[in-house]
Amino acid sequence: MARPNDIKYLTNSKAEKRPKKYCRLKKYGIKYIDYKDPNFLKKFLNEQGKLLPRRITGNTLKFQRKVSDAVKKARQMAILPYVTDLLK
Amino acid sequence: MNNYELMVIFTPVLSEEEFKAAQKKYTDLVTANSGNVLHSNPWGLKSLAYPIQKKTTGLYWVLEYQAPSSFNEQLKIQLLRDEQMLRYLLTKLDKHAVEYNEKRRKGVLKTEKIEA
């Protein structure tokens, strides 16, 4: 029989709730993403300078498309590198 | 009439006067073709993220202008003929982008405050 003290062992303590992902487009009301601002765009890249997927950043599809367009423009104009190591 | 943004990378070997002359050449071209220049912003010498034509630095210049859409073909021809130009990017700006650029110029906008 489970006494009140035993209940904590029955539920997996590791399966805690993660903070819910949110989209920055909605939270901060961003309507235009500037390709000239590398510091902002770097938040959506990994260390090799690749775009992070939507399931990690939590962006909406609309925002993700804008981010990817801006990153590709910045890469063309040598503001961001195409391939690199240790971007951050 | 649409809003456009032109970004050009010039070769780093240009002197101060040559850089200004190159900028003037394109602003004059815009005004000569019934367009008007909204803002011109020379960034100056900046290191490139990767070498272009074996050069590791470039002179950046950003121009925001209003012009009829037929003008852009002429501008592209002039840019591609230019030996001093390393690379250019022409972007059409929507209303949000125009708003953003205006705010940016006034210094109201602080994009840095958004944390990762």
Task: State the main characteristics.
heterodimer; A: about 90 residues; mainly alpha; 30s Ribosomal Protein S18; 5 helices; about 40% helix; about 0% strand; elongated; B: about 120 residues; alpha+beta; Alpha-Beta Plaits; four-stranded antiparallel beta sheet; 3 helices; disordered C terminus
Average predicted local confidence, pLDDT of chain A? 80
Binned strand content of chain B: 35-45%
Number of strands of chain A: 0
Quaternary: heterodimer
Strand order in the sheet with the most strands of chain B: 2-3-1-4
Query: In what range is the share of β-strand residues of chain A?
Result: under 5%
Rounded to the nearest angstrom, the distance between the terminal CA atoms of chain A is 53 Å
Helical proportion of chain B, percent range? 25-40%
Number of helices of chain B: 3
Radius of gyration based on Cα positions of chain A: 19 Å
**Total domain modules of chain B:** 1
CATH superfamily of chain B: Ribosomal protein S6/Translation elongation factor EF1B
Poorly predicted sequence stretches spanning 5 or more consecutive residues of chain B:
111-116
The largest sheet of chain B is: 4 strands, antiparallel
Q: What does this molecule look like?
A:
- The complex is a heterodimer of chains A (88) and B (116).
- Chain A is 38% helix and 0% strand.
- Chain A has 88 residues and is an all-alpha fold.
- Chain A has one domain: 30s Ribosomal Protein S18, CATH 4.10.640.
- The longest helix of chain A has 16 residues, at 61-76.
- Chain A is elongated and about 65 Å long.
- The model of chain A has no long low-confidence stretch (mean pLDDT 80).
- Chain B is α+β, with helices and mostly antiparallel strands and 116 residues long.
- Chain B has one domain (2-113): Alpha-Beta Plaits (2-Layer Sandwich).
- Chain B is built from three helices and four strands.
- Chain B has helices at 16-32, 71-81, 95-106; strands spanning 2-10, 36-52, 55-67, 85-92.
- Chain B has a four-stranded antiparallel beta sheet with strand order 2-3-1-4, with helices on one face.
- Chain B is globular and about 35 Å long.
- The termini of chain B are far apart.
- The model of chain B is unreliable at 111-116 (pLDDT under 50).
- Classes of the chains: A mainly alpha (88), B alpha+beta (116).
- Chains A and B meet through helix 5 of A and strand 2, strand 4 and helix 3 of B.
